[in-house]
């Protein structure tokens, strides 16, 4: 039995909505079959008449064992570090978070806002938002670089805008079933099992990527979205094309460029004019290349790939 | 009797945390204040960004109705850039909007609303035991079925956009996707699954065709009596229990309603303009004033925002959203005589404060205004008149009534796709002003965008929750939820569940805790969840 408390700071509930789409296990299965006890969740309901503030205080004092604290949304510090722009139960949310994080055996940040700050922390970051243990790629965040939960873990980061429901449920189950020590975290505290591979891993457009065959405009039935439409699939760590979304698809399969939302820099280039859905190039070469490839080799590869590209790469392939 | 003050914190997150304060005298609420308690500053973030930044950023305003934001953001750019939107793309956008709403209906009803029927206040109702069996959180038979199956419709969204929530597949000039036979066939099958596993056997207790014959209050009563299957379906059961526990007796609100209308017709909005929108919609726009029993068309030029009681340093005048400057106040301490919310008071220049939401949409659907070909449905207006106006109970029926008609609209989209026709026509970027609107599950939503020098100069959003939970305006007039709370009975001040019903009937989506203080002693009486 693992007690879970789920709170939201500067959030949109997107991760909650994503979580509710979970299958194998569903949210109800988690509770009935996997020993997860949801102490409280902003929209999942609980016994009526429950005294939330008392429950929070009991978690802080240790009267109720807080196995997992899940946080969704940014930590809002505005104005001037007070956190008053995000009050929860008559108190800045960041003050509750500060107390509860000390009491929790594990702290899990769900979604980009809680992991790195996400969209609210975009320039000019009016709400002075931070992630729990990072702000963008910089370690520290609200709880500080050295924070460790009572079980000795840093904040476990499950990024994404939103995070995939399976990523969330599987980590909760791993903790509840004593399997969490099998999990390796990367340098950004992400579980490698989901974030070691690339978004491109399993993409249906990989052959087009290999031959440098481009989707030049939306709504086409061919090509790779990397060369013109700004897809970040090759540079982004996620399992979106291995563990499909809503059990049916992924952005890149549906023809939408990956925005790199599992990486701390999302939204990339701060959405400055000219950067949205357009590959950023320098002298015709993408500014950002797949990790581990240098520009000279890439140029060579391009020439070879274009020379060897079969005719079908220019024809519609995802046809009706 | 001293006045008791209850502070409810938090309620509903559509644009952030919402708190409510009510005052109770002699068992009835005599005054109320709604306070939006979270500011992230999306309008501030969007200034100076790429014109298309709204397509990525605004769905993240709300993960519950991201498709609705995306619809608004793309239509706003379409009108600003004077694009051509292919027929398929209009259908694909509408389908995304529809399936998001289909997801929301059971998720909201079971996950957020119906669990209150298991409150111990109702333990003497003859319906109570059955309500607990069906609606108890996580374990109720209908709860588990409803919450789980709510994820099915958005699988269709994922077929179009890759994932739900938070795809950005709608773009000025059309959509990014080009669906195939596989996608359309699967989408049909997902819809059928939703209908045959939940809508008909669990929710209605009859076929959708039988339900569609209900046009009036009398028809509905006859349907209830026609068969035990109807009376004992979740709809029939909920309706009968609601009457038994008096949900039809309170929560009326302001008695005036707004919808922007939505679902532009695939053949009528391929050259989208702000002026041409009303005449192109399947679901017509409108305002209904119950005091004069009149329907009129809605136009964005009627909208005004007032920040006198909000935490913005923008004066006390009513301004059109295009003229908003969004200057958040650094000091957001609660002062119920002055500023007490991040929401603004939104009003109509002729009709004042209006309620947004499914009830509003369905009351407007009963109007004879608009184009002759547009969708007409008099059922909820008939209920409204027969029952003497709005209530918590009717607001719920208004929402649930949309289930079948949205299902039909989804079928229409799938039937009308011409898979080999275009899905996107590349537009030319230009400066200008745009406006896009839709109806989110929760009600009227729109975006105003102003582009200058190839970037966003001003971006303004007015969401359904802004209409509903706005604070008092410069004339001291209460917002719709504030008004709906007035006069509600509080059966037990230890556990004022009625406040929760009202807040939830507007679809506030979060739990909240109430603590009541005796005004004289400050003694804390109770806390409870309301959303």
From TrEMBL, chain A:
<dbReference type="GO" id="GO:0008901">
    <property type="term" value="F:ferredoxin hydrogenase activity"/>
</dbReference>
<dbReference type="InterPro" id="IPR001821">
    <property type="entry name" value="NiFe_hydrogenase_ssu"/>
</dbReference>
<dbReference type="GO" id="GO:0051538">
    <property type="term" value="F:3 iron, 4 sulfur cluster binding"/>
</dbReference>
<comment type="subunit">
    <text>Heterodimer of a large and a small subunit.</text>
</comment>
<dbReference type="Pfam" id="PF14720">
    <property type="entry name" value="NiFe_hyd_SSU_C"/>
</dbReference>
<dbReference type="InterPro" id="IPR027394">
    <property type="entry name" value="Cytochrome-c3_hydrogenase_C"/>
</dbReference>
<keyword id="KW-0003">3Fe-4S</keyword>
<feature type="binding site">
    <location>
        <position position="12"/>
    </location>
    <ligand>
        <name>[4Fe-4S] cluster 1</name>
    </ligand>
</feature>
<feature type="binding site">
    <location>
        <position position="113"/>
    </location>
    <ligand>
        <name>[4Fe-4S] cluster 1</name>
    </ligand>
</feature>
<dbReference type="InterPro" id="IPR006137">
    <property type="entry name" value="NADH_UbQ_OxRdtase-like_20kDa"/>
</dbReference>
<dbReference type="GO" id="GO:0016020">
    <property type="term" value="C:membrane"/>
</dbReference>
<dbReference type="GO" id="GO:0009375">
    <property type="term" value="C:ferredoxin hydrogenase complex"/>
</dbReference>
<feature type="binding site">
    <location>
        <position position="231"/>
    </location>
    <ligand>
        <name>[4Fe-4S] cluster 2</name>
    </ligand>
</feature>
<feature type="binding site">
    <location>
        <position position="161"/>
    </location>
    <ligand>
        <name>[4Fe-4S] cluster 1</name>
    </ligand>
</feature>
<keyword id="KW-0408">Iron</keyword>
<feature type="binding site">
    <location>
        <position position="261"/>
    </location>
    <ligand>
        <name>[3Fe-4S] cluster</name>
    </ligand>
</feature>
<dbReference type="InterPro" id="IPR037148">
    <property type="entry name" value="NiFe-Hase_small_C_sf"/>
</dbReference>
<feature type="binding site">
    <location>
        <position position="224"/>
    </location>
    <ligand>
        <name>[4Fe-4S] cluster 2</name>
    </ligand>
</feature>
<dbReference type="InterPro" id="IPR037024">
    <property type="entry name" value="NiFe_Hase_small_N_sf"/>
</dbReference>
<feature type="binding site">
    <location>
        <position position="258"/>
    </location>
    <ligand>
        <name>[3Fe-4S] cluster</name>
    </ligand>
</feature>
<dbReference type="Pfam" id="PF01058">
    <property type="entry name" value="Oxidored_q6"/>
</dbReference>
<keyword id="KW-0411">Iron-sulfur</keyword>
Automatic annotation (TrEMBL), chain B:
<feature type="binding site">
    <location>
        <position position="62"/>
    </location>
    <ligand>
        <name>Mg(2+)</name>
    </ligand>
</feature>
<dbReference type="InterPro" id="IPR001501">
    <property type="entry name" value="Ni-dep_hyd_lsu"/>
</dbReference>
<feature type="binding site">
    <location>
        <position position="515"/>
    </location>
    <ligand>
        <name>Mg(2+)</name>
    </ligand>
</feature>
<keyword id="KW-0533">Nickel</keyword>
<protein>
    <submittedName>
        <fullName>Nickel-dependent hydrogenase large subunit</fullName>
    </submittedName>
</protein>
<feature type="binding site">
    <location>
        <position position="65"/>
    </location>
    <ligand>
        <name>Fe cation</name>
    </ligand>
</feature>
<dbReference type="Pfam" id="PF00374">
    <property type="entry name" value="NiFeSe_Hases"/>
</dbReference>
<dbReference type="GO" id="GO:0030313">
    <property type="term" value="C:cell envelope"/>
</dbReference>
<dbReference type="GO" id="GO:0016151">
    <property type="term" value="F:nickel cation binding"/>
</dbReference>
<feature type="binding site">
    <location>
        <position position="512"/>
    </location>
    <ligand>
        <name>Fe cation</name>
    </ligand>
</feature>
<dbReference type="InterPro" id="IPR018194">
    <property type="entry name" value="Ni-dep_hyd_lsu_Ni_BS"/>
</dbReference>
<dbReference type="GO" id="GO:0008901">
    <property type="term" value="F:ferredoxin hydrogenase activity"/>
</dbReference>
<dbReference type="InterPro" id="IPR029014">
    <property type="entry name" value="NiFe-Hase_large"/>
</dbReference>
<feature type="binding site">
    <location>
        <position position="461"/>
    </location>
    <ligand>
        <name>Mg(2+)</name>
    </ligand>
</feature>
<keyword id="KW-0560">Oxidoreductase</keyword>
<keyword id="KW-0460">Magnesium</keyword>
<comment type="similarity">
    <text>Belongs to the [NiFe]/[NiFeSe] hydrogenase large subunit family.</text>
</comment>
<feature type="binding site">
    <location>
        <position position="43"/>
    </location>
    <ligand>
        <name>Mg(2+)</name>
    </ligand>
</feature>
<keyword id="KW-0479">Metal-binding</keyword>
<feature type="binding site">
    <location>
        <position position="65"/>
    </location>
    <ligand>
        <name>Ni(2+)</name>
    </ligand>
</feature>
<dbReference type="InterPro" id="IPR050867">
    <property type="entry name" value="NiFe/NiFeSe_hydrgnase_LSU"/>
</dbReference>
<feature type="binding site">
    <location>
        <position position="509"/>
    </location>
    <ligand>
        <name>Ni(2+)</name>
    </ligand>
</feature>
